[in-house]
Automatic annotation (TrEMBL):
InterPro entries named among the record's database cross-references: DUF1648
Organism: Thermasporomyces composti
Membrane spanning stretches: 7-30, 50-76, 88-112, 124-145, 181-203, 209-229
One Pfam family from the record: DUF1648
Keywords: Membrane, Transmembrane, Transmembrane helix
Name used for this protein in its record: Uncharacterized protein DUF1648
Record-annotated DUF1648 domain positions: 20-63
Source organism, top-level taxon: Bacteria
Length: 327
């Protein structure tokens, strides 16, 4: 059995096992649960909504499938399993999804256990934060486990594109990429922040609006910064400008680079959109598809989703002094 088949089999078994465990908890304690039972808790920690046991079982199954099926599709049809990093993200997603559904179900059962009605269910406070912490910790463990196994090697020197400027010629490559959905979402968050501030200033609404306006503003600004990108290669550096204002700018001196190439990457392979990964193995993901990948002299890599990436990689290799022919 191939490594790919073993990974898909293990992920499918994990999904089935955790899904069955969540449903099993509900059915095992069904005789000690009110019907309907509390299914949602408000900011105060008190239950504020309910659903029947049958509906909750159905929702649990659908939630498990909704979280796991996209990951399974990415594992079966995509290239995520070829690369160690993307495989780690997929494994993290599987582990997080399973533990989250089981943990959420366990808390729901505990809160409703032996309650006479759903309104008498136990309040939930620290348990929600514990669930978040535990699921992300186990997701991180899943990421580490997913990195075991083979890794797709980068292109060899003979396979990498190269364009060597003629003597005296000054060559520059510039390309951009954008994600209109991220742009739109960022503007929605900024507009919501403006509305909240206006409501507070003009109408004197609750001061709690400030607590909402601040994160909305930060999310909007961050969304704009990661929705548009401009990449430029010159004789001295690789410059990455973020956002519609082309600021901030992240500059990598070419002296720190070893090679460059183009490859396809997708959000499902790197954990989503935006800045994904850690320094030394990061991807700036705006949209799936062609990415410019540069390798640092210390072995780390940086991938940037940008159009016309192969020409950019060719110029980087040429400026680095590569003399291998373009494949």
């Amino acid at each position: 059995m191939s490594f790919r088949a073993r990974f898909i089999l293990a992920a499918s078994a994990w999904t089935a096992l955790t899904g069955a465990a969540a449903v099993g908890l509900l059915l095992f304690f069904a005789h000690r649960l009110p019907d309907p039972l509390a299914s949602h808790w408000g900011p105060s920690g008190r239950p504020d909504d309910s659903m029947s046991l049958t509906t909750l079982v159905t929702v649990t199954v659908l939630l498990m499938l909704g979280l796991a099926v996209p990951c399974l599709i990415a594992a079966i049809h995509g290239k995520a399993l070829r690369r160690r990093q993307s495989r780690g993200f997929l494994a993290a997603a599987f582990v997080w999804a399973g533990t989250f559904v089981v943990g959420m179900t366990a808390i729901t059962v505990w809160a409703n256990l032996d309650a006479t009605t759903w309104r008498a269910a136990r309040p939930i406070h620290w348990q929600a934060f514990a669930l978040i912490a535990v699921t992300f910790a186990l997701g991180a463990l899943g990421y580490l486990l997913g990195r075991f196994g083979p890794d797709e090697p980068p292109p060899t020197a003979a396979q990498r594109p190269v364009y060597t400027p003629k003597p005296g010629q000054r060559a520059t490559w510039v390309s951009t990429a954008s994600n209109r959905w991220l742009v739109g979402s960022a503007y929605v968050f900024l507009a919501a922040a403006i509305v909240l501030v206006a409501a507070k200033v003009a109408l004197g609404f609750s001061s709690g609006l400030w607590a909402l306006a601040i994160p909305f503003t930060l999310v909007g600004i961050l969304g704009l910064a990661l929705s548009t990108i401009r990449v430029q290669v010159t004789e001295g550096a690789l410059a990455i400008a973020f956002g519609p204002l082309r600021w901030p700018v992240y500059t990598v001196p070419l002296a720190q680079l070893d090679a460059a190439w183009s490859e396809e990457r997708w959000p499902t392979e790197v954990g989503g959109w935006g800045y994904r990964g850690l320094p030394g193995g990061a991807t700036i993901m705006l949209r799936g598809g062609e990415c410019l990948v540069v390798r640092y002299r210390d072995g780390g890599t940086l991938a940037i989703s940008v159009d016309d990436a192969e020409r950019g990689a060719a110029l980087v290799n040429g400026l680095l002094g590569s003399r291998t022919p373009t494949p």
